[in-house]
Amino acid sequence: MRVELPPEPVHFVNRHEERQRALRAVEEWRGRSRPLVLALSGPAGLGKTELARLLARTLLDRFPEGVLSVDLDDFRLDGVVDPGDVVAQLLGSLGVEPQLVEAQFTARCRQYWNKTAEARFVLIVDNARYASEVVPLLPASGGSVVIVASHGPLYDLEDGAAVDLALPPLEELAATELLRLIVRDHRLAADPESVRALVRLCDGLPAALHVAGRWVRAHRLRPLPRLISALHGEWEKEGVPGVERVWDTVCRGLSRPAGLLYRLLPHHPGATFTPDSATALLGLGQDACQEALEELDRAGLLDLRAVPGVEDGRIRLPGPLRAHALRRSRRDAEDGEVAAAQTRVLRWLVRQAQRADGFSAGRRLVVSEVFDPVPGAPDVPLEDPQEAADDAVRAERAERASRWLHDERHALFACVRLAYGRGMDAEAVALSEPVWTYALDHPHQSDVVQVFRLAVAAAVRHGQNAAWLVRTRCQLARPLWEAGELSDAERELTAADAAVGLLGDGKDDGKLRASVIESWGMLAGARGEWRAAADAFARSRDLHLAISNPYGVMLQTYRAGEARAKLGELETAHRLLSEAHEAAVTLQRERMTGRTAFALAGVLRRLGRTEEARGLYEQSLRGARKRRSGFDQARIHDAMAQLEEGAEGRGAAAGEHRAAAYDIRRRNGLV
Questions:
Q1: Could you report the per-residue pLDDT of 138-166, keeping only the tens digit for each?
Q2: What is the pLDDT of residues 268-309, one digit of tens each?
Q3: d(C-alpha 411, C-alpha 646), whole Å
Q4: Which residues contact 414 (CB under 8 A, 6 or more apart)?
């Protein structure tokens, strides 16, 4: 059972009517192919998220597959949510491997429907703004429940599918109970009139009551009438209604580092941050940042409960608080304060992305200089796989670096936009390299194409680095041809060809020339022009031979072998793929060893050399299992089933392979 819920809140009161209505609706629901939707709506600060989580915990014993949770604000860029990205995360929570998530949005939705058709789970969708953001996330099962939290009602949800639970402010009795639970101070019992005044001041908003309660606890010597008078005076002076009046007052009691961090957080690239990136943003060192985060948590301006006991726990400043912090920044920030903080965190993220890229993809050609450490902001604790003697340790380190790139993708995308907007061309181009590595595992994302377009624009604007021009044009071309935009991809490669003439005579320049030719070959393959592709890969291979680049030679030999196989030139394909496979083994490139073994086995099967093909398929399958790659395992089982079907007396083995491939796809929602 997967339960994506943080610890329960310490204090929660009332909402009895809403809870009863929700439970009654669940008991009475008789939907077959669509879920019940419980829609919680109301202004910020009413406790919608906490109620959604409480309902999910209450329903847990009825839904054996657990609770999934997504916060749409974590996926919101410039106010817009990419539903395909959200569906991909849900598929991952349902056990689908990243490599097996469908690339196209419509196919991804079908995969999600397949995976959830018989499911029984609770899905929490937080911070929805429009019904259109929720509809693609609905499971295809009447045995599931979706709990949606939004600031306003979602009128476009289908009639009869949703139970609208609009949350009013807490009534005075419930608000008083919550305040007493938060404060537990003898002054409340001694002065009930002041308690009523404080409750009225908070307007029945649980968030305001929490912050006001902390304020009371922080001033234990003052009589309540004097304290409330000061609070009321401050709120009236500021003229900000509701809970923001409380937040403004609390901000005035923050220490200088905590106040500085609070007004800098809305300028952090991306919707979420980590303690590490906050340290870079603040610029006062790790200890000072940890103390500031804890102070903001105590003040009710942050919620650290969702942060696990590790360094890379993610934190999000909720929308209303983020808007408040931004206003505080505009009002109180010193000259240059925000620009300096953004430069620090931007360069820190560039450095971490470069390190994660190198550890995830292995040592390879990059066109950007490695950025130096940022003073006072330690590096993320990623370790170099090449420094480990054990294969399993190397694989774990590489996987951790790859996960970091995935988790930070929105921050990296935002950093590219920020860098380009501020004329920081070196940073924009440097970030395109780790985004390239991320995109190889997660193709067909519009944000990735935007990143590469900005990197090209930065390289063109800079105009003094031919390697940047070549690299960024090739990076942009690939997602374009993968999306079927072949003419646009051709224009980028033509521009890259023009920039090749500006390169020097060094080894890296030679690699870039070979890379452009390889890209032309891959574009030709996307068009089905395999003769042209084979010729391009052969020319690229010759360039790698000339500069003594063994990995490049191996890769282009492999690509040329695949192209020859497409052309039906099996003997030539066999020779090339055998050579590529031996080189991959020698270079200890595990993934390429598996890919070359699979391709070579396919050619051997077509040549009738069944036993040799079977051995290579089995080797490739062992490698795929070791890497836990369901995508590779499924296609190898398919190929082995086809192999065994043609072998006398091997029908049972063929059936086993077909069943294994089907089971993998079924687990991942593909059938």
A1: 999 899 999 999 877 787 776 556 788 88
A2: 998 889 999 999 999 999 999 999 998 888 777 887 765 544
A3: 51
A4: 77, 269, 270
Neighbours of 667 (CB within 10 A): 17
CATH domain 549-670 topology: 1.25.40
pLDDT reported for residue 519: 97
Per mean pLDDT, which range of 100-114, 422-436, 541-555 is the poorest? 100-114
Provide the token pair at 137. Answer: 């996330």
DSSP 3-state percent helix, strand, coil across the chain (nearest 5): 65, 5, 30
Sequence spans of domains, the chain: 2-166, 172-253, 256-333, 335-462, 549-670
Assigned CATH topology for domain 2-166 = Rossmann fold (3.40.50)
pLDDT at site 235: 56
- pLDDT tens for 353-378 read 999 999 988 778 889 999 999 999 99
CA angle 630, 635, 638 (to 5 degrees): 125
The residue-averaged pLDDT of 397-414 equals: 90
Side chain identity at residue 176, one-letter code: T
Please report which helix (H) or strand (E) contains residue 296, including its range. helix 286-298
Distance, CA of 616 to CA of 304 (rounded, Å): 50
Those residues whose C-beta lies under 8 Å from the C-beta of residue 412, and which sit 6 or more positions away, are 270, 349, 353, 405, 431, 434, 435, 438, 451
Average pLDDT over residues 173-185: 87
Strand partners, 2: 66
Rounded to whole angstroms, the Cα distance separating 553 from 100 reads 29
Q: Is 240's pLDDT higher than 50?
A: no
Question: 2-166 and 256-333 share one CATH topology?
Answer: no
Instruction: Answer whether 41's CB lies under 8 Å from 51's CB.
Output: no
Task: Choose which CATH entry (3.90.1150.10, 1.20.1050.40, 2.130.10.10, 1.10.10.10) describes domain 256-333.
Answer: 1.10.10.10
Helix (H, G, I), strand (E, B) or coil at 126: strand
Whole-model pTM: value is 0.78
Which residue reads 């499911």 in tokens? 119
Ranking 124-128, 517-521, 530-534 by mean pLDDT, the lowest is 124-128
Strand order in the sheet with 145-150: 2-3, 66-71, 122-128, 145-150, 36-41, 162-166
